[in-house]
Specification:
Elements (H helix, E strand, L loop, with lengths): L9 H4 L27 H11 L3 H8 L3 H13 L6 E5 L5 H7 L4 E6 L2 H6 L7 E3 L12 E7 L8 H10 L1 E12 L5 H22 L4 H12 L3 H10 L3 E8 L4 E7 L2
Parallel strand pairs: 1-2, 1-4, 2-3, 4-5
Antiparallel strand pairs: 5-7, 6-7
Helix pairs in contact: 3-8, 8-9
């Protein structure tokens, strides 16, 4: 018997008849498949389907290998035990889920880009196709929920935070790992130059859709800083919200508790 909520086996998700509707749509977003900052969920899912094949490699190159350190820090912040049931939301290729599962906890990857889930098919963790704002899980199903580099992409992130609270038991934990604002102001300026100029150019060497990385840079610039995100998490129904900066604030880990 599975230990967690019912999940769809990967073989069912990735069969030929399981292609997402949006991947068959013509590219209606201009000549490139790039979501604007006023994104809609289909555009976001389609954009991630487009970068899925080389997503892991591109991440490691663009983060100069820091992504592994950020994922480990996320796992440690969750303080997981083998008895825990964990939702890794917006898990993409499940690279983040595999790191969480090294704790011995039962971890499920959920994402609405079937292309991303399929790119991680070889990763031996349960995977579920689902939208962060309408999760296919019962109330209080999980001991912990986490989302890495995903909340910024959820169009209605307040709805996503509320859904995460709904599926977490009372006393359960949330950790959000997300790009944030560097704390050293002169570095923050350099960083924004790096993001806006170098990142899309570097992505053109490794990514299957470099224009998606222009969106990435723009979305990071538009994202709330540490204190602002903490307020939004609290407003969405979480308590005891606190954060820790990683890599000088390039990334922040926000932790919170379900009341
Ligand atoms: C940058 S990737 C992060 C993947 C993974 N967590 C990691 O750390 O590498 C963002 C993911 O968020 C997913 N996503 C965005 N909006 C979503 C939503 N509303 N519901 C489910 N997944 C969503 C995308 O499909 C994409 O796979």
């Amino acid at each position: 018997m599975p230990r967690g909520p019912r999940v769809i086996p990967s073989s069912a998700l990735f069969g030929p008849s399981a292609q997402p509707t949006h991947s068959r749509l013509p590219d209606t977003f201009g000549s490139v498949n790039r979501a604007s900052l006023e994104k809609n969920p289909h555009e976001v899912a389609s954009m991630f389907d487009g970068v899925a094949r080389r997503y892991d490699l591109t991440n490691t190159v663009l983060s100069l290998g820091q992504d592994r350190f950020w994922r480990r820090a996320t796992r440690e912040a969750l303080r997981l035990t083998p008895a825990d049931k964990v939702l890794d939301l917006a898990a993409g290729t499940a690279v983040s889920t595999v790191e969480l599962a090294t704790s011995g906890a039962w971890c499920v990857a959920a994402d609405f880009s079937v292309g991303m889930l399929a790119a991680g098919a070889a990763r031996d963790v349960p995977k579920v196709a689902g939208d962060a704002t309408k999760l296919p899980f019962a109330d209080e199903s999980f001991d912990a929920v986490t989302i890495s580099f995903g909340l910024r992409n959820v169009v209605d992130h307040t709805a996503g935070l509320r859904e995460m609270a709904r599926v977490t038991r009372s006393g359960g934990r949330l950790v959000v790992c997300e790009f944030s604002t560097p704390t050293f102001a002169p570095f923050a300026t350099v960083y924004k130059e790096y993001l806006m100029r170098a990142l899309p150019r570097m992505a053109s060497a490794v990514s299957s859709n470099p224009d998606a990385y222009v969106y990435l840079a723009e979305s990071i610039r538009a994202w709330p800083d540490q204190a602002d995100l903490a307020r939004r998490i609290e407003a969405a129904g979480w308590t005891n919200v606190r954060w820790r900066n990683l890599s000088g604030g390039i990334v922040a880990l926000h932790a919170a508790t379900k009341p």
